[in-house]
Amino acid sequence: MMNYNTNQLQIRNNNKYENFPQSHQLITTLNGSVATSQTLLTTATFNNNINSSASNGNANVAGSEDEISKKLPKEILLRILSYLDVVSLCRCAQVSKYWNILALDGSNWQKIDLFYFQMDIEGPVIENISQRCGGFLKYLSLKGCQSVGDQSIRTLAQHCHNIEHLDLTECKKITDAAIDPLSKHCPKLTAISLESCSLITDLSMKALSDGCPNILEINISWCNLISENGIEALARGCNKIKKFSSKGCKKVNDPALNALANFCPKIEILNLHSCDTITDSSVRNITMNCPNLRQLCVSKCGELSDQTLVSLANNNPFLSTLEVAGCQQFTDLGFQALGKNCKYLERMDLEECTQITDATLAHLATGCPSLEKLTLSHCELITDDGIRQLAAGSCAAESLSVLELDNCPLITDATLEHLTSCHNLQRIELYDCQLISRNAIRKLRTVLPNIKVHAYFAPVTPPVGGIIAGMFVNPRYIDVFIQSTFDNTEFNEDL
Asked: In angstroms, rounded to a whole number, what is the distance separating the alpha carbons of residues 307 and 304?
Protein backbone atom coordinates (compact mmCIF):
# COMPACT_ATOMS: atom_id res chain seq x y z
CA MET A 1 0.00 0.00 0.00
CA MET A 2 2.95 2.31 -0.55
CA ASN A 3 1.17 4.39 -3.15
CA TYR A 4 -1.77 4.86 -0.83
CA ASN A 5 0.41 6.25 1.94
CA THR A 6 2.29 8.53 -0.43
CA ASN A 7 -0.91 9.92 -1.90
CA GLN A 8 -2.29 10.51 1.58
CA LEU A 9 0.72 12.68 2.33
CA GLN A 10 0.28 14.60 -0.91
CA ILE A 11 -3.38 15.20 -0.15
CA ARG A 12 -2.64 16.54 3.31
CA ASN A 13 -0.09 18.94 1.85
CA ASN A 14 -2.51 20.43 -0.68
CA ASN A 15 -5.59 22.21 0.67
CA LYS A 16 -7.52 21.89 -2.60
CA TYR A 17 -7.66 18.09 -2.19
CA GLU A 18 -7.57 17.93 1.59
CA ASN A 19 -10.80 15.89 1.79
CA PHE A 20 -10.24 13.61 -1.19
CA PRO A 21 -12.69 10.70 -0.59
CA GLN A 22 -10.37 7.71 -0.91
CA SER A 23 -12.53 5.24 1.01
CA HIS A 24 -15.73 6.37 -0.71
CA GLN A 25 -14.05 6.20 -4.09
CA LEU A 26 -12.82 2.68 -3.39
CA ILE A 27 -16.22 1.42 -2.28
CA THR A 28 -18.19 3.03 -5.12
CA THR A 29 -15.76 1.68 -7.70
CA LEU A 30 -15.78 -1.85 -6.32
CA ASN A 31 -19.55 -1.76 -6.08
CA GLY A 32 -19.72 -0.93 -9.77
CA SER A 33 -21.20 2.55 -9.32
CA VAL A 34 -20.87 4.96 -12.22
CA ALA A 35 -18.55 7.85 -11.43
CA THR A 36 -20.05 11.32 -11.52
CA SER A 37 -18.52 14.04 -13.67
CA GLN A 38 -17.26 15.76 -10.54
CA THR A 39 -15.51 12.54 -9.38
CA LEU A 40 -13.98 12.02 -12.81
CA LEU A 41 -12.70 15.60 -12.85
CA THR A 42 -11.21 15.38 -9.34
CA THR A 43 -9.64 11.96 -9.91
CA ALA A 44 -8.11 12.85 -13.25
CA THR A 45 -6.66 16.07 -11.95
CA PHE A 46 -5.28 14.46 -8.82
CA ASN A 47 -3.61 11.60 -10.64
CA ASN A 48 -1.84 13.78 -13.22
CA ASN A 49 -0.91 17.06 -11.60
CA ILE A 50 -2.06 17.78 -8.09
CA ASN A 51 -0.88 21.37 -8.37
CA SER A 52 -2.75 22.23 -11.57
CA SER A 53 -6.26 23.62 -11.83
CA ALA A 54 -9.16 21.18 -12.13
CA SER A 55 -10.17 22.23 -15.65
CA ASN A 56 -6.66 22.11 -17.11
CA GLY A 57 -5.99 18.81 -15.39
CA ASN A 58 -9.12 17.25 -16.83
CA ALA A 59 -8.28 18.37 -20.35
CA ASN A 60 -4.69 17.15 -20.09
CA VAL A 61 -5.76 13.76 -18.79
CA ALA A 62 -8.39 13.31 -21.50
CA GLY A 63 -5.81 14.05 -24.17
CA SER A 64 -3.16 11.88 -22.60
CA GLU A 65 -5.62 9.03 -22.14
CA ASP A 66 -6.63 9.09 -25.83
CA GLU A 67 -3.01 9.24 -26.93
CA ILE A 68 -1.95 6.38 -24.67
CA SER A 69 -4.89 4.24 -25.75
CA LYS A 70 -3.99 4.69 -29.43
CA LYS A 71 -0.27 4.01 -29.08
CA LEU A 72 -0.25 1.13 -26.59
CA PRO A 73 -2.09 -2.16 -27.08
CA LYS A 74 -4.49 -3.35 -24.42
CA GLU A 75 -2.10 -6.09 -23.26
CA ILE A 76 0.64 -3.54 -22.45
CA LEU A 77 -1.76 -1.26 -20.60
CA LEU A 78 -3.02 -4.20 -18.54
CA ARG A 79 0.56 -5.13 -17.67
CA ILE A 80 1.27 -1.58 -16.50
CA LEU A 81 -1.88 -1.44 -14.39
CA SER A 82 -1.01 -4.78 -12.79
CA TYR A 83 1.70 -3.02 -10.75
CA LEU A 84 -0.77 -0.63 -9.07
CA ASP A 85 -2.35 -1.02 -5.64
CA VAL A 86 -6.08 -1.13 -4.95
CA VAL A 87 -6.52 2.62 -4.46
CA SER A 88 -4.61 3.53 -7.61
CA LEU A 89 -6.61 1.05 -9.68
CA CYS A 90 -9.85 2.56 -8.42
CA ARG A 91 -8.63 6.02 -9.40
CA CYS A 92 -7.76 4.82 -12.87
CA ALA A 93 -11.17 3.17 -13.16
CA GLN A 94 -12.84 6.58 -12.84
CA VAL A 95 -10.81 8.38 -15.52
CA SER A 96 -12.89 7.12 -18.45
CA LYS A 97 -15.01 4.19 -19.57
CA TYR A 98 -12.09 2.57 -21.36
CA TRP A 99 -9.80 2.91 -18.36
CA ASN A 100 -12.60 1.57 -16.16
CA ILE A 101 -12.64 -1.61 -18.22
CA LEU A 102 -8.86 -1.92 -18.06
CA ALA A 103 -8.46 -1.10 -14.37
CA LEU A 104 -11.20 -3.48 -13.24
CA ASP A 105 -9.97 -6.35 -15.38
CA GLY A 106 -9.63 -9.40 -13.16
CA SER A 107 -5.98 -9.92 -14.12
CA ASN A 108 -5.09 -6.77 -12.15
CA TRP A 109 -6.75 -8.01 -8.98
CA GLN A 110 -4.74 -11.09 -8.10
CA LYS A 111 -3.74 -9.68 -4.71
CA ILE A 112 -6.12 -7.55 -2.62
CA ASP A 113 -5.53 -6.20 0.88
CA LEU A 114 -8.50 -4.32 2.34
CA PHE A 115 -7.13 -3.94 5.87
CA TYR A 116 -6.82 -0.15 5.57
CA PHE A 117 -10.51 0.09 4.66
CA GLN A 118 -11.82 -2.42 7.20
CA MET A 119 -14.41 -0.03 8.68
CA ASP A 120 -16.00 0.57 5.27
CA ILE A 121 -15.98 -2.93 3.77
CA GLU A 122 -19.31 -4.74 3.82
CA GLY A 123 -20.58 -7.94 2.26
CA PRO A 124 -21.67 -6.58 -1.16
CA VAL A 125 -18.17 -5.23 -1.83
CA ILE A 126 -16.62 -8.68 -1.31
CA GLU A 127 -19.28 -10.32 -3.44
CA ASN A 128 -18.66 -7.83 -6.25
CA ILE A 129 -14.90 -8.34 -6.02
CA SER A 130 -15.39 -12.10 -6.20
CA GLN A 131 -17.51 -11.86 -9.33
CA ARG A 132 -15.14 -9.40 -11.03
CA CYS A 133 -11.92 -11.26 -10.20
CA GLY A 134 -13.05 -14.85 -10.62
CA GLY A 135 -10.18 -17.25 -11.08
CA PHE A 136 -7.58 -14.47 -11.12
CA LEU A 137 -7.79 -13.77 -7.37
CA LYS A 138 -5.08 -15.56 -5.39
CA TYR A 139 -4.54 -13.40 -2.30
CA LEU A 140 -7.25 -11.69 -0.26
CA SER A 141 -6.88 -10.03 3.15
CA LEU A 142 -10.09 -9.09 4.94
CA LYS A 143 -8.33 -8.57 8.25
CA GLY A 144 -10.49 -6.53 10.58
CA CYS A 145 -13.49 -6.42 8.21
CA GLN A 146 -16.03 -7.23 10.90
CA SER A 147 -19.06 -6.58 8.70
CA VAL A 148 -18.19 -9.44 6.37
CA GLY A 149 -20.34 -12.52 6.95
CA ASP A 150 -20.87 -16.06 5.70
CA GLN A 151 -22.70 -15.11 2.48
CA SER A 152 -19.73 -13.05 1.25
CA ILE A 153 -17.32 -15.95 1.79
CA ARG A 154 -19.72 -18.35 0.05
CA THR A 155 -19.74 -16.08 -3.00
CA LEU A 156 -15.96 -15.82 -2.84
CA ALA A 157 -15.60 -19.61 -2.78
CA GLN A 158 -17.98 -20.08 -5.69
CA HIS A 159 -16.22 -17.62 -8.00
CA CYS A 160 -12.56 -17.64 -6.91
CA HIS A 161 -11.49 -21.26 -7.13
CA ASN A 162 -7.80 -20.39 -7.36
CA ILE A 163 -7.58 -18.50 -4.06
CA GLU A 164 -4.38 -19.48 -2.25
CA HIS A 165 -4.09 -17.05 0.67
CA LEU A 166 -7.12 -15.91 2.70
CA ASP A 167 -6.89 -13.74 5.81
CA LEU A 168 -10.12 -13.57 7.82
CA THR A 169 -8.55 -12.28 11.04
CA GLU A 170 -11.17 -10.65 13.31
CA CYS A 171 -14.03 -11.32 10.88
CA LYS A 172 -16.16 -12.11 13.90
CA LYS A 173 -19.36 -12.90 11.97
CA ILE A 174 -17.75 -15.80 10.14
CA THR A 175 -19.05 -19.25 11.15
CA ASP A 176 -18.53 -22.85 10.03
CA ALA A 177 -21.08 -22.17 7.27
CA ALA A 178 -18.48 -20.01 5.51
CA ILE A 179 -15.64 -22.51 5.72
CA ASP A 180 -17.60 -25.42 4.22
CA PRO A 181 -17.89 -23.87 0.71
CA LEU A 182 -14.21 -22.94 0.84
CA SER A 183 -13.36 -26.58 1.37
CA LYS A 184 -15.58 -27.64 -1.53
CA HIS A 185 -14.49 -25.07 -4.12
CA CYS A 186 -10.97 -23.90 -3.19
CA PRO A 187 -8.59 -26.88 -3.26
CA LYS A 188 -5.57 -24.64 -3.96
CA LEU A 189 -5.84 -22.87 -0.58
CA THR A 190 -2.40 -22.89 1.08
CA ALA A 191 -2.76 -20.29 3.86
CA ILE A 192 -5.75 -19.26 5.96
CA SER A 193 -6.06 -17.12 9.08
CA LEU A 194 -9.13 -17.49 11.28
CA GLU A 195 -7.61 -15.60 14.20
CA SER A 196 -10.26 -14.25 16.59
CA CYS A 197 -13.11 -15.78 14.55
CA SER A 198 -14.70 -16.89 17.79
CA LEU A 199 -17.64 -18.74 16.20
CA ILE A 200 -15.43 -21.24 14.35
CA THR A 201 -15.59 -24.80 15.71
CA ASP A 202 -14.15 -28.26 15.04
CA LEU A 203 -16.49 -28.55 12.04
CA SER A 204 -14.38 -26.02 10.15
CA MET A 205 -11.22 -27.98 10.87
CA LYS A 206 -12.88 -31.13 9.53
CA ALA A 207 -14.05 -29.27 6.41
CA LEU A 208 -10.57 -27.89 5.66
CA SER A 209 -9.13 -31.35 6.22
CA ASP A 210 -11.49 -32.85 3.65
CA GLY A 211 -11.20 -30.25 0.91
CA CYS A 212 -7.94 -28.29 1.31
CA PRO A 213 -5.09 -30.81 1.57
CA ASN A 214 -2.50 -28.26 0.39
CA ILE A 215 -2.70 -25.97 3.42
CA LEU A 216 0.76 -24.94 4.57
CA GLU A 217 -0.16 -22.18 7.05
CA ILE A 218 -3.12 -21.92 9.42
CA ASN A 219 -3.84 -19.53 12.27
CA ILE A 220 -6.67 -20.39 14.68
CA SER A 221 -5.52 -18.15 17.55
CA TRP A 222 -8.27 -17.22 20.02
CA CYS A 223 -10.74 -19.65 18.41
CA ASN A 224 -11.74 -21.04 21.77
CA LEU A 225 -14.32 -23.51 20.44
CA ILE A 226 -11.70 -25.58 18.61
CA SER A 227 -10.64 -28.66 20.55
CA GLU A 228 -8.29 -31.59 20.22
CA ASN A 229 -10.81 -33.33 17.93
CA GLY A 230 -10.68 -30.50 15.42
CA ILE A 231 -6.88 -30.36 15.50
CA GLU A 232 -6.60 -34.10 14.94
CA ALA A 233 -8.97 -33.95 11.97
CA LEU A 234 -7.01 -31.05 10.49
CA ALA A 235 -3.66 -32.77 11.00
CA ARG A 236 -4.81 -36.00 9.34
CA GLY A 237 -6.00 -34.29 6.16
CA CYS A 238 -3.52 -31.39 5.96
CA ASN A 239 -0.23 -33.12 6.60
CA LYS A 240 1.80 -30.52 4.68
CA ILE A 241 1.35 -27.83 7.37
CA LYS A 242 4.52 -25.84 8.02
CA LYS A 243 3.14 -23.00 10.14
CA PHE A 244 0.57 -23.51 12.89
CA SER A 245 -0.66 -20.93 15.41
CA SER A 246 -3.18 -21.57 18.19
CA LYS A 247 -2.40 -18.71 20.55
CA GLY A 248 -4.88 -18.50 23.40
CA CYS A 249 -6.72 -21.73 22.49
CA LYS A 250 -7.27 -23.28 25.89
CA LYS A 251 -8.57 -26.55 24.40
CA VAL A 252 -5.35 -27.19 22.48
CA ASN A 253 -3.81 -29.79 24.79
CA ASP A 254 -1.41 -32.73 24.73
CA PRO A 255 -3.59 -34.95 22.46
CA ALA A 256 -3.91 -32.07 19.98
CA LEU A 257 -0.17 -31.50 19.98
CA ASN A 258 0.52 -35.22 19.62
CA ALA A 259 -1.73 -35.29 16.53
CA LEU A 260 0.31 -32.48 14.97
CA ALA A 261 3.52 -34.30 15.81
CA ASN A 262 2.30 -37.58 14.31
CA PHE A 263 0.71 -36.27 11.10
CA CYS A 264 2.50 -32.97 10.32
CA PRO A 265 6.25 -33.66 10.39
CA LYS A 266 7.03 -30.63 8.19
CA ILE A 267 6.12 -28.05 10.84
CA GLU A 268 8.67 -25.21 10.97
CA ILE A 269 6.82 -22.52 12.93
CA LEU A 270 4.65 -23.34 15.95
CA ASN A 271 2.89 -20.83 18.23
CA LEU A 272 1.31 -22.30 21.37
CA HIS A 273 1.21 -19.10 23.43
CA SER A 274 -1.10 -19.53 26.45
CA CYS A 275 -2.02 -23.14 25.63
CA ASP A 276 -1.38 -23.64 29.30
CA THR A 277 -2.26 -27.33 29.71
CA ILE A 278 0.41 -28.74 27.40
CA THR A 279 3.22 -30.66 29.07
CA ASP A 280 6.77 -31.76 28.32
CA SER A 281 5.66 -35.06 26.79
CA SER A 282 3.71 -33.55 23.87
CA VAL A 283 6.35 -30.89 23.17
CA ARG A 284 8.96 -33.64 23.17
CA ASN A 285 6.96 -35.47 20.47
CA ILE A 286 6.94 -32.28 18.40
CA THR A 287 10.69 -31.84 18.73
CA MET A 288 11.38 -35.48 17.79
CA ASN A 289 8.98 -35.72 14.86
CA CYS A 290 9.45 -32.22 13.42
CA PRO A 291 13.20 -31.90 12.76
CA ASN A 292 12.78 -28.71 10.70
CA LEU A 293 11.28 -26.73 13.60
CA ARG A 294 12.77 -23.22 13.46
CA GLN A 295 10.44 -21.03 15.52
CA LEU A 296 8.65 -22.06 18.71
CA CYS A 297 6.51 -20.03 21.10
CA VAL A 298 5.41 -21.67 24.35
CA SER A 299 5.06 -18.49 26.38
CA LYS A 300 2.65 -18.77 29.33
CA CYS A 301 2.77 -22.57 29.15
CA GLY A 302 3.52 -22.94 32.82
CA GLU A 303 3.57 -26.74 32.99
CA LEU A 304 6.76 -27.02 30.93
CA SER A 305 10.13 -27.76 32.51
CA ASP A 306 13.77 -28.10 31.49
CA GLN A 307 12.87 -31.37 29.76
CA THR A 308 11.33 -29.31 26.96
CA LEU A 309 14.52 -27.27 26.48
CA VAL A 310 16.75 -30.34 26.56
CA SER A 311 14.56 -32.05 23.97
CA LEU A 312 14.73 -28.97 21.73
CA ALA A 313 18.50 -28.89 22.05
CA ASN A 314 18.83 -32.58 21.15
CA ASN A 315 16.45 -32.63 18.19
CA ASN A 316 16.20 -29.15 16.66
CA PRO A 317 19.66 -27.73 16.01
CA PHE A 318 18.34 -25.18 13.46
CA LEU A 319 16.05 -23.44 15.95
CA SER A 320 16.23 -19.68 15.37
CA THR A 321 13.44 -18.21 17.53
CA LEU A 322 12.39 -19.31 21.01
CA GLU A 323 9.73 -17.54 23.09
CA VAL A 324 9.28 -18.92 26.60
CA ALA A 325 8.00 -15.90 28.55
CA GLY A 326 6.39 -16.89 31.82
CA CYS A 327 7.77 -20.44 31.86
CA GLN A 328 8.94 -20.20 35.43
CA GLN A 329 10.10 -23.82 35.76
CA PHE A 330 12.94 -23.31 33.28
CA THR A 331 16.39 -23.10 34.85
CA ASP A 332 20.01 -22.65 33.82
CA LEU A 333 20.24 -26.40 33.13
CA GLY A 334 17.84 -26.22 30.20
CA PHE A 335 19.46 -23.16 28.67
CA GLN A 336 22.88 -24.76 29.04
CA ALA A 337 21.71 -27.52 26.70
CA LEU A 338 20.39 -24.94 24.21
CA GLY A 339 23.66 -23.02 24.33
CA LYS A 340 25.60 -26.14 23.42
CA ASN A 341 23.50 -27.33 20.47
CA CYS A 342 21.41 -24.45 19.05
CA LYS A 343 24.02 -22.16 17.53
CA TYR A 344 21.56 -20.57 15.07
CA LEU A 345 19.36 -18.94 17.71
CA GLU A 346 18.61 -15.32 16.76
CA ARG A 347 15.69 -14.25 18.97
CA MET A 348 14.94 -15.33 22.54
CA ASP A 349 12.22 -14.11 24.89
CA LEU A 350 12.96 -15.23 28.46
CA GLU A 351 10.72 -12.72 30.23
CA GLU A 352 9.67 -13.88 33.71
CA CYS A 353 11.87 -16.98 33.59
CA THR A 354 12.55 -16.14 37.20
CA GLN A 355 14.90 -19.04 37.99
CA ILE A 356 17.61 -18.27 35.46
CA THR A 357 20.85 -16.68 36.61
CA ASP A 358 24.05 -15.31 35.10
CA ALA A 359 24.95 -18.90 34.16
CA THR A 360 22.32 -18.84 31.41
CA LEU A 361 23.88 -15.74 29.87
CA ALA A 362 27.28 -17.39 29.98
CA HIS A 363 25.96 -20.39 28.01
CA LEU A 364 24.24 -18.18 25.44
CA ALA A 365 27.30 -15.97 25.07
CA THR A 366 29.54 -18.87 24.13
CA GLY A 367 27.08 -20.98 22.15
CA CYS A 368 24.80 -18.58 20.24
CA PRO A 369 26.89 -16.30 18.00
CA SER A 370 23.87 -15.21 15.91
CA LEU A 371 21.76 -13.91 18.80
CA GLU A 372 20.14 -10.61 17.75
CA LYS A 373 17.35 -9.98 20.24
CA LEU A 374 17.30 -11.08 23.88
CA THR A 375 14.51 -10.34 26.36
CA LEU A 376 15.37 -10.75 30.06
CA SER A 377 12.59 -8.64 31.57
CA HIS A 378 11.71 -9.61 35.16
CA CYS A 379 14.62 -12.05 35.35
CA GLU A 380 15.43 -10.78 38.81
CA LEU A 381 18.56 -12.90 39.42
CA ILE A 382 20.52 -11.42 36.50
CA THR A 383 23.45 -9.24 37.59
CA ASP A 384 26.17 -7.10 36.03
CA ASP A 385 28.43 -10.15 35.81
CA GLY A 386 25.96 -11.95 33.56
CA ILE A 387 25.83 -8.96 31.22
CA ARG A 388 29.63 -8.83 31.28
CA GLN A 389 29.79 -12.41 30.05
CA LEU A 390 27.16 -11.74 27.40
CA ALA A 391 29.02 -8.66 26.17
CA ALA A 392 32.24 -10.64 25.95
CA GLY A 393 30.57 -13.43 23.96
CA SER A 394 30.60 -14.18 20.27
CA CYS A 395 27.24 -12.49 19.60
CA ALA A 396 28.09 -9.15 21.18
CA ALA A 397 30.26 -7.44 18.59
CA GLU A 398 28.17 -7.97 15.45
CA SER A 399 24.78 -9.61 16.13
CA LEU A 400 23.15 -8.35 19.34
CA SER A 401 20.88 -5.41 18.45
CA VAL A 402 18.09 -5.44 21.08
CA LEU A 403 18.44 -6.14 24.78
CA GLU A 404 15.48 -5.84 27.16
CA LEU A 405 16.42 -5.63 30.83
CA ASP A 406 13.42 -3.89 32.38
CA ASN A 407 12.67 -4.90 35.97
CA CYS A 408 16.06 -6.51 36.52
CA PRO A 409 16.72 -4.93 39.93
CA LEU A 410 20.33 -6.09 40.38
CA ILE A 411 21.92 -4.50 37.34
CA THR A 412 23.82 -1.24 37.82
CA ASP A 413 25.78 1.28 35.80
CA ALA A 414 28.44 -1.38 35.32
CA THR A 415 26.07 -3.16 32.91
CA LEU A 416 26.09 -0.18 30.55
CA GLU A 417 29.88 -0.04 30.69
CA HIS A 418 30.04 -3.69 29.60
CA LEU A 419 27.61 -3.07 26.73
CA THR A 420 29.88 -0.51 25.05
CA SER A 421 31.51 -3.44 23.25
CA CYS A 422 28.20 -4.35 21.57
CA HIS A 423 28.73 -2.18 18.52
CA ASN A 424 25.48 -3.20 16.79
CA LEU A 425 23.25 -2.56 19.80
CA GLN A 426 20.32 -0.41 18.66
CA ARG A 427 17.87 -0.53 21.56
CA ILE A 428 17.96 -1.28 25.27
CA GLU A 429 15.06 -1.38 27.74
CA LEU A 430 15.82 -0.28 31.31
CA TYR A 431 12.41 0.45 32.83
CA ASP A 432 12.41 0.05 36.64
CA CYS A 433 16.15 -0.62 36.78
CA GLN A 434 16.57 1.55 39.86
CA LEU A 435 20.37 1.28 40.02
CA ILE A 436 20.94 2.74 36.53
CA SER A 437 21.81 6.45 36.44
CA ARG A 438 21.46 9.17 33.85
CA ASN A 439 25.22 9.62 33.76
CA ALA A 440 25.73 6.00 32.78
CA ILE A 441 23.25 6.39 29.92
CA ARG A 442 25.10 9.49 28.72
CA LYS A 443 28.40 7.62 28.76
CA LEU A 444 26.88 4.72 26.81
CA ARG A 445 25.69 7.17 24.22
CA THR A 446 29.10 8.66 23.67
CA VAL A 447 30.21 5.23 22.45
CA LEU A 448 26.93 4.20 20.76
CA PRO A 449 25.43 7.49 19.52
CA ASN A 450 22.50 5.90 17.62
CA ILE A 451 21.20 3.69 20.40
CA LYS A 452 17.66 4.09 21.77
CA VAL A 453 17.38 3.77 25.54
CA HIS A 454 14.00 3.42 27.22
CA ALA A 455 14.31 4.02 30.94
CA TYR A 456 12.33 5.04 33.99
CA PHE A 457 13.75 7.01 36.90
CA ALA A 458 11.94 6.71 40.21
CA PRO A 459 11.07 10.02 41.85
CA VAL A 460 13.56 11.36 44.36
CA THR A 461 10.74 13.41 45.84
CA PRO A 462 7.94 12.33 48.19
CA PRO A 463 5.11 10.17 46.76
CA VAL A 464 2.64 11.46 44.17
CA GLY A 465 0.86 14.52 45.48
CA GLY A 466 3.72 15.45 47.82
CA ILE A 467 4.53 19.10 48.40
CA ILE A 468 8.01 20.60 48.28
CA ALA A 469 8.51 24.32 48.72
CA GLY A 470 4.83 24.87 47.99
CA MET A 471 4.96 22.96 44.66
CA PHE A 472 2.94 19.90 43.68
CA VAL A 473 5.31 17.05 42.67
CA ASN A 474 4.61 14.18 40.27
CA PRO A 475 6.85 11.19 39.46
CA ARG A 476 9.19 11.79 36.59
CA TYR A 477 9.24 9.44 33.66
CA ILE A 478 11.99 9.54 31.12
CA ASP A 479 11.96 8.06 27.65
CA VAL A 480 15.47 8.47 26.36
CA PHE A 481 15.67 8.23 22.58
CA ILE A 482 19.32 8.33 21.73
CA GLN A 483 19.72 9.66 18.21
CA SER A 484 22.53 11.32 16.38
CA THR A 485 20.65 14.62 16.16
CA PHE A 486 20.53 15.12 19.93
CA ASP A 487 23.15 16.92 21.96
CA ASN A 488 25.38 14.63 24.04
CA THR A 489 23.70 15.60 27.29
CA GLU A 490 20.17 16.13 26.05
CA PHE A 491 17.26 13.91 27.16
CA ASN A 492 13.64 14.00 26.11
CA GLU A 493 11.81 14.19 29.44
CA ASP A 494 8.13 14.16 30.31
CA LEU A 495 7.55 15.77 33.67
From this structure: 8
Does residue 492 contact residue 481 with C-beta atoms inside 8 Å? yes
Q: How many CA atoms lie within 13 A of 15 on its CB side?
A: 0
- Does the pTM surpass 0.85? The reply is no
In sequence order, what DSSP letters do the residues of 58-104 get, joined into one string? HHHHHHHHHHHHHHS-HHHHHHHHTTS-HHHHHHHHTT-HHHHHHHT
166 CB neighbour count, 10 Å cutoff = 23
Neighbour-count burial for 182-193, b at 16+ CB within 10 Å, e otherwise: bbebbeebbbbb
Give 326's contacts (C-beta < 8 A, 6+ positions apart): 299, 300, 301, 302, 351, 352, 353
∠ CA(359), CA(413), CA(338), 5° rounding? Answer: 20
CA distances from 176 to 121, 210, 455 (A): 21, 14, 47
pLDDT tens per residue across span 15-65: 332 333 555 556 666 665 434 333 333 334 334 443 443 444 444 555 555
169-181, pLDDT tens digit by residue? 999 999 999 999 9
Cα-flanking dihedrals φ and ψ of residue 239, to 5°? -85, 10
DSSP secondary structure string, 268-332? -EEE-TT-TT--HHHHHHHHHH-TT--EEE-TT-TT--HHHHHHHHHH-TT--EEE-TT-TT--H
